[in-house]
Every structure is written in structure tokens, then in C-alpha cells.
Amino acid sequence: MTARPARPFPRVAAVAAVAASAIAAIAASAPAQAAPERYVVEPTHTFTMFEVRHFNTSTVRARFDRTEGFVVLDREARTGRAEIAIDTASVNSGIASFDAHLRNPDFFDSARVPKARFVGTQFSFDGDKVSAVAGDLTLLDKTLPVTLKATNFNCYDSPVQKARVCGGDFEVTIKRSQWGMSWGVNRGIPDDVRLLIQIEGVRQ
Q: Was domain 37-203 assigned CATH 3.40.50.880?
């Protein structure tokens, strides 16, 4: 007996071809997976500041003029990493004698420990905006966990940098004595210090 040749199934083949084309079209039109973006600190819009009450009366304020570092942000994965270094010798209160005292071993001990560092490893989001960053603050060679609360986080296309820029205001209140900075605590100078970081980073 002679075997019959297999009969083609043109309708099935046509449906399969249409389905394959549709899948390819969807894949081509789908947005590409966003990659992590690296932002380098823009120094003219990035400053670390602190506030402390003066004998429970006025508020004493100063800032560090030199802050450097980078932030890696992955909005799709809702993750990030920040590495920020603060030059403590750049402290600037506007009063030279006070700045000299802040640099000495009673406070920042800048000659021995020239940098304070924050490494953020856990990013929280509110929608597509960063709302908090948790990590470790190293001050006077001691490292402890802190969480910075974010406000005003935003990204924009900078006409000056010709690049995408992201940034915002971040803050946390710490007890300085936990890092070994205890001078004056028993004489009425408060232990609580409010740290504020205004930061902008330029996408690389």
C-alpha cells in the first residue's frame, strides 16, 4: 500500500505566522528595561549643613563647603546606592574662631579624621520619587546606622550641565555623643544635631 503524502495545513500555518508577528511587534514596542543610572555630586548645589540649639535659645547653623560622591539609582528595581564624603575641615559658620574650634579634637578633629562619610544602601520610594535613604554614617572613625528623610526630590534637564540632574533635601537628627563627640554635652550644649544635606547629582 502506498502512503499518502502529508497534507499541508495552510490555515494553521497562517495563524501561527500572524501570532509570531504580533509577539515580535509587542516585544519591539515594549520599553527597554531601565538600567541603573549613576549621578555624580554637583558641588555648587550640594552642601551638608547642621543645626544645634544654643543653650535652648537660638539655633546655631554651619555648613561644610566641600562634599563629593555619587548616587546610583535604579527606579525600575527601586534600589540605589549613595556614597558621600564630607570634608570636615571645610566647615563654615561665618565665624572664624568658631570654625577653628569645630575643626579641633573637641568636635570634628579634622586633622586626624579629615572625612565624614555616608553610605546609603536602602532606598525607599513614594511613587517614582526617593522618600528616604538608610545607610551608615561614619564620623570620627565610628560607623552607625542612620536614615535620611527626603523632601523635594526631583529630576530635571539642566540647561547648564546639558544633562539630567536629580536631587533633593535630606535630613536626620543624630546624637553626636554616639560617635564620641561629647564635648560640652554636660555643660548645656545639646547632644542632638540636625543634619541637612542638599544634594544634586549629574547623570553620567
A: no
